[in-house]
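input
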Amino acid sequence: MGPTPLTQVIQVPLRQLAGGGLPFLLRLQTLENAMSDKPRISHNYGTIDKEYGMFLATRTPEEDGPLYMVNLMKYHEVAQYSEDGVVDHAISGREADDRYNPASVLNKIGATIVFAGDVTSNNVGDEDWDRIAIVRYATRKSFIEMQSRKDFGDKHVHKAAGMLRTTLVCCRPEDESLDSRNRPTPLELRTVAMIVRQTPDRAGAFAALPGAINFSAEGTIIGDGRKWDTVQFVPVNSEAEVAELAASLDYCKPGESYVMGLQVVLDSITLP
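output
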């Protein structure tokens, strides 16, 4: 049996349909095309939160604005392509993700990769991760509409093959000046600690790490069903400092937190 269409999964109030008119119906169709499990962007690397997807797709221009998609990525050891002929020899999941690189598509829709780095230590958490990337989208709607672009679909086959699992946390920064920062340029490797938490006290989480760059999660569009609340970055000088920081955060427990060390190569988040 195939996947249930999104319009059957989410019950939309009739008054919302009536009040939204054609623009709402177009957004609904865009969402169903983009977030269904049908090709062109079929995958097995995470579960879509379709209710939150509906929220993203139905924002009015007045309600919409920049959104940061924080990607936590774990790769297959060997990429799992579902069709023959896509690659002429076996490649790793990381190599498949490198082939996916959606920068050209992101440029076309006004989105920017603002942060990227490899995970060098998984200090707290019930799972390990390989790479982190953050994309700043000009609007929530542009993220949804990208899913149905042919050029994105053509690239996505590599992500689907390379990714064992991913969590995509959709955030707004505490410091809104980040919205206007320029596209980062490649830099020498630097070390940053990353903390992802489930917490009912976001203000308390931010206060507990003075000097951190803080993000509040609006939703988790793809993952394992858990919803995350905060994402924080702390520049440090070494992996030893990451380990010390992780040991000091006794409120960060596996299953409800991740603390990781990153070697960062792109960064307009933590640099002044």
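quick obs: DSSP finds nine helices and nine strands in the chain.
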